[in-house]
Amino acid sequence: SFTTKDVVLKEERPKTLLLQKHSDYLASYGLNKDDYEYCMTEYLRMSGIYWSLTAMELMGQSHRMPKEDIIEFITSCQDSESGGVSASVGHDPHMLYTLSAVQVLAMYNRIDAIDVEGVVRFIKAMQQEDGSFFGDKWGEVDTRFSFCAVMCLSLLQRLDAIDVNKAVDFVLSCMNFDGGFGSKPGSESHAGLIYCCVGTLSICKRMDALHADELAWWLCERQLPSGGLNGRPEKLPDLCYSWFTMYQSTLTIKTYTTQSSLSMLNRIHWVDKKNLEQFILACQDAETGGFSDRPGDITDPFHTLFGLAGLSLLGNPSIKPVNPTYCMPQETIDRLKLEPQILH
Ligand SMILES: COc1ccc(S(=O)(=O)N2Cc3cc(-c4ccc(C=O)o4)ccc3N(Cc3cncn3C)C[C@H]2Cc2ccc(O)cc2)cc1
Ligand SMILES: [Zn+2]
Fold first, then answer.
1. What is the per-residue pLDDT for 265?
2. Helix-helix angle 191-203:212-220, to 10 degrees
3. Is the beta carbon of 238 within 6 A of some atom in ligand 1?
4. Which of 38, 107, 145, 151 is 20 to 30 A from 168, alpha carbon to alpha carbon?
5. What is the rounded distance in angstroms from the CA atom of residue 164 to the CA atom of residue 206?
6. How far is 77 from 84, CA to CA, in rounded Å?
7. Could you give the CA distance from residue 35 to residue 287 in angstroms, rounded to a whole number?
8. Shortest CA distance to 304 belongs to which of 330, 324, 281, 287?
9. Which H/E stretch holds residue 292?
10. Is 293 in the pocket of ligand 1 (CB under 6 A)?
């Protein structure tokens, strides 16, 4: 028989936002350098700092983060030869961590702390003839890296450094019949990659190229009875997909519509808000603090950011406004005078 995989929310789940617990969780994350998970995530440390700082900014708690240590860490991770930034000292520079570093410095208003020309040189060198971008010198192409490139350069006011039209053409060549996007031409649609591709079009002001209706239908189905959203058909709901899917959202009115793109497509009011909000709140851990991918799992800074950002998009007044395209505090985007496109 046909069964929709979903989770069942328990009666004793958290029903309110445990802000103090999340602030304490992120403030202490990484203080114990011997912590197993902390050591295991050295390879994504720069992104971990972006996820933690952004979450703390949204909670108005960023004063609890070690600002000067973070800035010093970032400068020590920039490779003088390529201009790129690595996840940790001694690791290879990569687009993912170059973006995370620039996002952190933009929030701190300390872009001056790194060699901006070096970053621009690194990103420019990653663009290929077909407009696509490598992640690093090993040459993996993925639409995630197109999003990193345009987001990073726009934060530096240097989009002029790449061929924006070719970058957009490559992203559009990854659009599928379902209106979704994959990592390369012909790859299966996936909510996280749709988020990257729609975000790229938003920054390049090419949202006109979206097949919004088909995309809408595909995203409609992402919401499940539990209120949670999944990343692909037949998958379990996952908190981070609540952000990715919330972002692309549907233009088609349906009972279950998912969010986030709705914010860009300016149709957030179509979201089954109450259901999704209760799913997100259920992903909190009242003991350790933080959010997990689904109720009862281990929490981490990655899902903690997307839980708080999702609640912010849903209009929770105790969380600061988040920009849906950059996943950064709206006040930072305003200060940089950036205006990513949303559909009206
Ligand atoms: C635990 O296994 C993974 C798998 C992939 C990754 S990832 O770096 O490729 N990435 C981000 C990601 C991070 C975490 C995590 C744990 C602890 C920390 C500290 O900051 O962060 C956990 C998961 C995760 N994933 C994988 C994932 C999310 N939900 C379900 N899964 C299997 C996403 C993954 C891809 C990614 C997405 C967005 C983004 O901005 C960067 C990378 C990391 C850990
Ligand atoms: Zn997840």
1. 57
2. 150
3. yes
4. 107
5. 10
6. 8
7. 17
8. 281
9. strand 291-292
10. yes
Give the pair of three-digit tokens for residue 168. Answer: 């957009």
β-pairing, 299-300 with 291-292?
antiparallel
Read off the pLDDT of residues 300-332 as tens digits, 9 standing for 90 and up: 999 999 999 999 988 899 999 999 899 999 999
Q: Which residues of 124-143 are buried (b: 16+ CB within 10 A; e: fewer)?
A: bebbeeebbbbbbeeeebbb
Pair of tokens at residue 150:
């345009």
Q: Over the stretch 131-162, which tens digit does the pLDDT of each residue have?
A: 999 999 999 999 999 999 999 999 999 999 99
Residue 10 has which token pair? 């328990």
Instruction: Return the ligand number nearest the Cα of 195.
Output: 1
Three-class SS state of 152: helix
Predicted TM-score of the model (pTM) = 0.93
* Residue 253 in tokens: 């009115």
48 lines ligand 1 (CB under 6 A): yes
DSSP 55-89: HHHHTT-GGGS-HHHHHHHHHHTB-TTT--BBSST
258 has a pLDDT exceeding 50: no
Q: Whose CA is nearest to atom 24 of ligand 1?
A: 302
pLDDT at 263: 58
